[in-house]
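Hi support team,

I'm filing this because I wasn't sure whether my run with iron/sulfur cluster finished correctly. The job status page said complete, but I'd like someone to confirm that the output block is well-formed before I use it downstream. Pasting the exact inputs I used:
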Amino acid sequence: MEKSLLIAGFGGQGVMLIGKTLCLTANDNGMNATFFPAYGTAQRGGTANCTCIISDEEIGSPVCETFDNLIVMNEPSYQKFAPTLKEGGEIILNSSMVTSRPADGVKYYAIDSIKIANDLGNTKVANMVILGAYIAVAGNLDVDQVKEQVKHALHGKEALFDINMKAIDAGIAAVKSA
Amino acid sequence: MEKSLLIAGFGGQGVMLIGKTLCLTANDNGMNATFFPAYGTAQRGGTANCTCIISDEEIGSPVCETFDNLIVMNEPSYQKFAPTLKEGGEIILNSSMVTSRPADGVKYYAIDSIKIANDLGNTKVANMVILGAYIAVAGNLDVDQVKEQVKHALHGKEALFDINMKAIDAGIAAVKSA
Amino acid sequence: MAKIEVAKDRCKGCKLCVLNCPKNIIKIGSDVNTAGYFVAEQFNPEECTGCKLCAIMCPDMAISVYK
Amino acid sequence: MAKIEVAKDRCKGCKLCVLNCPKNIIKIGSDVNTAGYFVAEQFNPEECTGCKLCAIMCPDMAISVYK
Amino acid sequence: MEKIFGLPSTVLEQMTHQFCPGCGHGIVDSLLMHELEEMGVKENTAIVWPVGCSPMAGSVSTINQVSAAHGRAAAVATGLKRSSKDTFVICYQGDGDLAAIGTAETIHAANRGENITVIFGNNSIYGMTGGQMAPTTMLGQLSTTTQSGRNSEQHGNPIRMAEIIAGLEAPKFVARYSVHDAKHVMQTKQGIKKALEVNKNGGYSFIEVVTMCPTGWKMTPEQSVKKIVEENLKVFPLGVLKEVD
Amino acid sequence: MEKIFGLPSTVLEQMTHQFCPGCGHGIVDSLLMHELEEMGVKENTAIVWPVGCSPMAGSVSTINQVSAAHGRAAAVATGLKRSSKDTFVICYQGDGDLAAIGTAETIHAANRGENITVIFGNNSIYGMTGGQMAPTTMLGQLSTTTQSGRNSEQHGNPIRMAEIIAGLEAPKFVARYSVHDAKHVMQTKQGIKKALEVNKNGGYSFIEVVTMCPTGWKMTPEQSVKKIVEENLKVFPLGVLKEVD
Amino acid sequence: MKKEFLKGNEAMAEAAVRAGCRFFAGYPITPQNEIPEHLSRRLFEVGGEFVQAESEVAASYMVYGSSMTGTRCMTSSSGCGLALKAEGIGYITGARLPAVVINVGRGGPGLGQILPSQQDYLSATKAPSNGGARAFVLAPSNVQEAVDLVYEAFDIADKYRCVCYVLTDGVIGNMMEGVVLPEMRDLSSLPDKSDWVVTKRGPGPNTQFGNKRIITSWQNTGEELEATNQVFADMLEGWKANETRYEAYQMDDAEVVFAAYGTSARVAKTVVNKMRAEGIKAGLLRPITLFPFPEKPFEALDAAKVKKVICLEMSIPGQLIEDVRAFVDKKIPVEHFGRSGGVILKPEEAYEASKKML
Amino acid sequence: MKKEFLKGNEAMAEAAVRAGCRFFAGYPITPQNEIPEHLSRRLFEVGGEFVQAESEVAASYMVYGSSMTGTRCMTSSSGCGLALKAEGIGYITGARLPAVVINVGRGGPGLGQILPSQQDYLSATKAPSNGGARAFVLAPSNVQEAVDLVYEAFDIADKYRCVCYVLTDGVIGNMMEGVVLPEMRDLSSLPDKSDWVVTKRGPGPNTQFGNKRIITSWQNTGEELEATNQVFADMLEGWKANETRYEAYQMDDAEVVFAAYGTSARVAKTVVNKMRAEGIKAGLLRPITLFPFPEKPFEALDAAKVKKVICLEMSIPGQLIEDVRAFVDKKIPVEHFGRSGGVILKPEEAYEASKKML
Ligand SMILES: Cc1ncc(C[n+]2csc(CCOP(=O)(O)OP(=O)(O)O)c2C)c(N)n1
Ligand SMILES: Cc1ncc(C[n+]2csc(CCOP(=O)(O)OP(=O)(O)O)c2C)c(N)n1
Ligand code: SF4
Ligand code: SF4
Ligand code: SF4
Ligand code: SF4
Ligand code: SF4
Ligand code: SF4
Ligand SMILES: [Mg+2]
Ligand SMILES: [Mg+2]
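And here is everything the job wrote out:
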């Protein structure tokens, strides 16, 4: 099974980190994964987005027009990318920054990542909340393996392990309780 | 009728001037002519040669392997180019500098240009002697027109007109008397 | 009497105006503009001399000065 | 006692040796080499000091000096 | 109250610079736009932009503009000016552009004394491509291609272009400025004015401006300003290097 | 009698130079060939020839050689030397090559302090291509592209490369010589020796040699020598410009 | 009209002046030096500008700079000099500016040789630069045609706002031949470019806001660049449909067809004449536009009639043959004979080799 | 072996190091900067040298200089950077030196765009330089293949003493994908070059007299250059006969054949799968060597079976299509669909467009 995901937001919201973590996990787990970061001059201090495809089989195109899942981190990204969701796909909304909501019938999860992160004591882990939420929604990756990846990325900052793990769990919980 | 001519010698022997003069005359006379000077790094202070083709009709290739006529101004050029004469072709030899002679049956004119020029009072007009000789041999150009060209080339040096004209005539005479 | 106006959507919160105001009357505020930057603001206009140093220093031509 | 030898087929008759011999004992002769150049020659070897100035000046490395 | 400073008419209100926060190019561009307005030449000016960050200023400007290939601004300006003597031609180039790939074009346009003004935004880094070493990078400075700092053995030393240009005969005005604080920005403004006047009177002028690239240097604008004072100006001394009347 | 001067073993007896009579390149080449023999480095030397007349010396030499594209000798030398530290690398370039198309490569190899020696045969003309203006052509000098003489308005002024190179930090020896007479040839010989020693000890050295191109100047060798004294040396002063130990 | 007797390079340079060329930047390289040399004098006489650039790279950008003022302009070079101009040719093309480029071909690759050669066919026709840039490529085969095509090249460049590339070689550049020079164009009769030149104000091709003119080969987004690519693609289709030119010589009943351009086509003509004299039905198809390539006459060759196509080229391996093969019926064998690297193809050897192929 | 998850550019750079590359000279340009950046650190670690050149032109000649010492060496660039390297590529080719060149394609012509594109097909395959120089051109379509081909490119370059050119694009250069890196080559296992390197004595390829080595792309006479051209031509024939590579995917019974390389081939695969799922007999021919072009599988397409060939490319106008058209039976219609200028081709649109063509 192949799952395509687009993650979009401002630069600095951790868009790339989320995508890479997911793909690294899949790769280490023997699955195929492609991570393609959009680049261009418009990127300077502007928006950021990336495409992640994870599959059991060989991956054809690493880019696509429509996606199984979207993670939208802010309102402009929502406006731009909401139409790229496949029929039957699911959106994860960072509701702290996205005010719009999908049309009826589109499945989505509104995650107030900043509030959740603040409640945990550090605004900066908002992206981990979203990461957790996605794992819960997609269901194709093992939570513990993802956590290992995050720890790996935090190498040298062991003090932050705990709060990041909590944020992932909180994201998962937010989806489950939705 | 198309006539191809190769002129070869040392740099400084007037090879290019002879060729250009012939072609200019033909051109002014409504005939077609091509003048192609060989060039290359080996030329520096070395040998010089050019191909002249004169014809009533459109000229195809401006270069060829074999020629109706050759003008050879020195021995090395003779060695190199003698084999390029067409069957039935004619060679004009600057016998002041060329000691070899063609095989039996090949028509040639040995012109002792330097001696003739010296006799006229100026070694430098040796090339005009050769020019005259060629006109006589080829027979496709009008002597007076050629002389006009030479005068044109000597523009500003009117004092030299006379000796140059004489040199041409001497060249013609040398062929006729051969 | 003088004052400055910061064009909110031009400002990128770089602080160069703050650093160069001889009167120290500019700060980066808590307002975020559409590009996500915290914007500079003058907090003591009465002290402003209209020296234009902040404006000439602004890489984004965000500051207008009035006198 | 010294003398020079000019390698006939290297010489191009440029006269630089002639111009630079402090003893003025080189000239361009009337001999033509295979490349068509008139070749330099030493005409008063007994005056030659073997200073090598002619040789070092020769662009064509045509001169050998003996002492 | 009267507006005594604001957007010049050479700048489009509806567009904002795409520069990073605190980028020195923005300051230089601001000075240039004001100056062009003040000199009344904005209708017949063509700015030759290189490839690099500085051309991002182009989109906010109302001045006619040309994009030169990376390094070739001075050659483009030469062709343009020679074929249109009434056009006021200005290049504004970065250090990768002017001092690396464009070394030959820069020096020869100056040496021919082309009737142009070259403004050289020296930020000691390749900003646009993500922070690689430039010929003007400081010794010890980190960049993505000098990950343990530039060292003179492998990478050579920071090169001083204004000094090279000043050593040529034709240039009429050559100077180096900095935009790290307001005082120096005011001086830079005078320099640009002078350079453009030389241009108007027929002659080549060259202004090097030491600027900050917070993004490429991986510093805040505040830190960048400090780095200029503590490091860059020691290698790139300010002042007028050549002035001919 | 003993032979005290003759062909060095770095020169092939069976080949003669293709230079025109009185060409200064031949003198410089002769000095270089003698020097390489004297220094005992002929077996592990590579001469990087440019495109121009100077490489015609190559065919008579027994030294390993490389032909660089026009202007790129210093870049070729950089790659060669960096990948083979034991090879002694020398460039011998003309003025069109080094001071026009190769300006950037020349300056940046010098600025990086590449461990090479650059010998610059400055004959104020494009010899090989038939006598076009070079960046080092004198004002007033006739050439096939300045048929009424070079003038500074249209063509700029003769450029002084040794001065530019001497202004950089890395070069260890920079000097200008001339080969118009035996005394100056002897000085040039010392300069080449010094430059090669610097190279051997690890460092960049640059020697500019003012030379004559009788063919390009449309003069006899004798007139050419006179022209150097009367014109060229006034624009290109001789001497050591930089020496670092 | 007086038929002058001129060297190809000089004649082309003069033709440019008469076509209204008022700017030239170039760099010396054999075998085309008479072009810059002639123009260094002539352009100042007619009020234009000549710059001997510091390099071929710089020369190409000087031309770019001049063209954006609306000035008719040109550069010329040979061999590796063209490789150095590749980037600039792409910029000119991408910015949709008119310019004329002459290549007087020499041997390659690399420095190769200064002697005449036709080894730049593919580079001229397929990839004069990066990014899919294409130029309109003309190939004269005598001095008169060289003059006429250079003269016209400026019109083509202006009409399409493209690079018009004249591909010739050291034979045509250096030979002298009779030629009638065209009249001096009145500059005021040249196409009006006021709607896009950078020396005027008002909206232009790249203007988003206000009056400013922007000359650039950069586009802000992929979509904008794609749109430009599409305009260019459509233009190329138009060229293919309307602009191809060729000469068909003795083709009516030809059974042996020679394909050749430039100097080689002259050689081919001599060979055709010789074969015809012997009763062999030979003919010549000579592309005059190398790009757009005259596909039709080659596609039209009838396998029932034509026994062989022989490409004569001064290039080994053959280059023109790649295009010829692509369009000729697969049933007709297409062969190559050529010389290369500066060796000039001679009619005698071409004749011998061709006879062997029959 | 561990499958790492790496960015294409970085992975190619590391593959070069492991293949024994010990010299790199380059100049920054998006989208390939991670190649020089990675090598600026790594090459010094392994005892090699990295030079950030003053320009692309200089970089290409530094590589030329390094290669003649026998060192495995490389340069990389994109778009207009390759145009500037054209002259150097010709010199390397003409002097018969081995070198690897990577082009991470971006939009063009001119400056164009930094976004991914496939607009350099013709320049890579037909005319990477002047004078008829050709390079061996490889086109990977995923990161693993990019690594493998870069690794092998050094062997190819050494084997033929040619430029081996890896043509990829901004998608493959910038995407991350799982990849198994090849082993580190033992430098002593690399081909012996002592018979021609300039750092040794003894007769070499251009030696006339004595022991000296001469590295040059110049030849003293047209005849000598022609002989070199002929050697090169023979080598190209050998490539055509022995070295072409392609992937045939679902081709056995294919009625609709896609032709695509690199990133577009991945898109094509997705389209093929989708069509197959619908019962349409689609297949893909993916050239891996772009030059030598795999002519045979295209010539072999049977007009009785194949109804259409569709070239998918990130280039408008199409470029690969010129080769495909030249070799496919004229009876089979060959069409093009693509995006250009930096717009990445998407499988959905490719599918829609292709369906319309059926
Ligand atoms: C021929 C060419 N080479 C490389 C590039 C890539 N490139 C774009 S901008 C740039 C340099 C940016 O540095 P600089 O000139 O210092 O300008 P800055 O961005 O720092 O202002 C480079 C190398 C290019 N566009 N064209
Ligand atoms: C890229 C390139 N451009 C131009 C040329 C033609 N060319 C050959 S030598 C030369 C210049 C010769 O002048 P210079 O460097 O001064 O050397 P000289 O012959 O005077 O010693 C030129 C322009 C070339 N071979 N390659
Ligand atoms: S200098 Fe300008 S951009 Fe920076 S904080 Fe002040 S107003 Fe904002
Ligand atoms: S005008 Fe002067 S005093 Fe007023 S805010 Fe700006 S810098 Fe400060
Ligand atoms: S310097 Fe040498 S070449 Fe010149 S005349 Fe004397 S010996 Fe002959
Ligand atoms: S060695 Fe000295 S004295 Fe003797 S000939 Fe030569 S220059 Fe004259
Ligand atoms: S990268 Fe540097 S130079 Fe470029 S806009 Fe940002 S701060 Fe300015
Ligand atoms: S043309 Fe000039 S530089 Fe070249 S060999 Fe002749 S004299 Fe020497
Ligand atoms: Mg910079
Ligand atoms: Mg010179």
